[in-house]
Predict the structure of Sorbitol dehydrogenase-like protein.
Amino acid sequence: MPENSNISWVLKRIGDIQAENRPRPSPKPNEVEIAVKVTGICGSDVHYWVQGHIGDFIVKEPMVLGHESSGIVTNIGRDCKILKVGDQVAIEPGIPCYICHFCKNGQYNLCKDMKFAATPPINGTLCQYYCCPEDFCVKLPDNFPSLEEAALIEPLSVGIHSCKLADLRAGQTVIIFGAGPVGLLAGAAAKASGAVKITMVDINQSRLDFAKNYVANEVVLAEREIPQGLSSVNFAKRFSQKLLESGVEQADVILECSGVETCIQTGIYMTKSKGTFVQVGMGMEVVPIPIADIGVREIKFMGSFRYCNTYKQAVQLVSAGFINLKPLITHRFKFQDAVKAFETVKERKDNVIKALILGTDTN
């Protein structure tokens, strides 16, 4: 393949992903160029492909997909002092402005001028070469398992951030709604934080089976359909009562990773008084919630958006053996088979948990 080629997988329009040779980037003084070796497929990538937007983020022009990536440094800008050519790195895909109130207070995930890979109009990382500021690349230590696991540092960071927001402490109990990759990694982060009991709730039995073997102490198969004439809040209240009668206890911390209306509502009812509810998953923009229950039981209710200051911690937890990411990697695809990878994730074929697209020269 020519030295200056930069084959990239581009979302041209809704439902249309094509390989396109774009110019190979040159790093700015504070950037490094990375040969991307592994990219994980996120639900947001699939959502842009199928729907063309997520909320107010609308794909208006062709955009390179992907933001869960790792690779090897191939070139460095003149001001770089930490990394060198040949270093293996996990790429943090959101670059803030550095100067706003939130950036200066270490909450850069809330920066209004954040440039996040594969969030319109910013191009993503599913390409041969990608440039990133040096301080948003984390060098992998020698005892880190592989570049495949490094691609999962991004979704693991979502889980770690949610546990930090919940102020999750050793000895606490956790219920997680949604046993997809983010929910599973939130569970792994909760366990590493000292949670003594993790209950996972989902409508998919195969995912619950996986969760039970991976991180969950207890799993619950949720009801799918709301009976006609019953409001979603009343359905959630009834379902939570069933859970309590079956022996499932309210938890100190709820991590809602599905974004589903009835899961949010059930999660509130399943939060202990004085407990903490963290909304991680993205779903409908407006959802009715039992606000009186939150008030009279003094539940701490908060949102969680991406992550900040988590990448190094995530790498350390994996390197030290506290979190094992390998079981989540169920599918691997060659670079040229990227569309097949997206189709597999969209249709949830073969009990896929996490699908990886390998770089052009990675077997």
User: Anything to note?
Assistant: The CA atoms of residues 177 and 256 lie 5 Å apart.
